[in-house]
Amino acid sequence: QVQLVESGGGLVQAGESLKLSCAASRTIFSINTMGWYRQAPGKSRELVASITSVGSTTYADPVKGRFTISRDNARNTVYLQMNSLKPEDTAVYYCNAKVTSLALPYWGQGTQVTVSS
């Protein structure tokens, strides 16, 4: 069982930055993959970025070069640094953890990010 708590969302203007945090209730050292997803109104939830236990990262095309995912195993926390934010980044951002590659994921409750133009 893993509980995930996101924080760091808010309202910003286009071009500004935000850093999201996802705190896990247990050690993340051995968790296979942790990621950030987002869901905008009327749209499906989509992958934003993910990071494996060995530090390999994946990014969705719309955020490449602007967002950076990282993990701090000592703090059991995963971060999403979001720079050069755009109005189309507006969404609820969810943290996700898959203990193994075949396991069902755990989800956090989400944090709202709103980018005004």
Please characterize this protein's 3D structure.
The protein has 117 residues and is mostly beta strands. It is 0% helix and 51% strand. The protein contains no helices and 11 strands. Strands 2, 4, 5, 6, 9, 10 and 11 form a 7-stranded mixed β-sheet that branches. It is globular and about 40 Å long. The model has no long low-confidence stretch (mean pLDDT 96).
Characterize this entry briefly.
The protein is an all-beta fold. The protein has strands at residues 4-7, 10-13, 18-24, 33-39, 46-52, 57-59, 67-72, 77-82, 91-98, 106-107, 111-116. Strands 2, 4, 5, 6, 9, 10 and 11 form a seven-stranded mixed β-sheet that branches.
Order of helices and strands: EEEEEEEEEEE
Broad structural category: mainly beta
Give the proportion of residues in helices: under 10%
Distance between the termini: 40 Å
SS elements, strand count: 11
Portion in beta strands: over 45%
Please mark out the parts with pLDDT under 50 across 5 or more consecutive residues, or reply none: none
What is the average of the pLDDT values? 96
- The oligomeric state of the chains shown is single chain
Radius of gyration over C-alpha positions, nearest whole angstrom: 13 Å
Number of helices: 0
Shape category: globular
Largest sheet: 7 strands, mixed
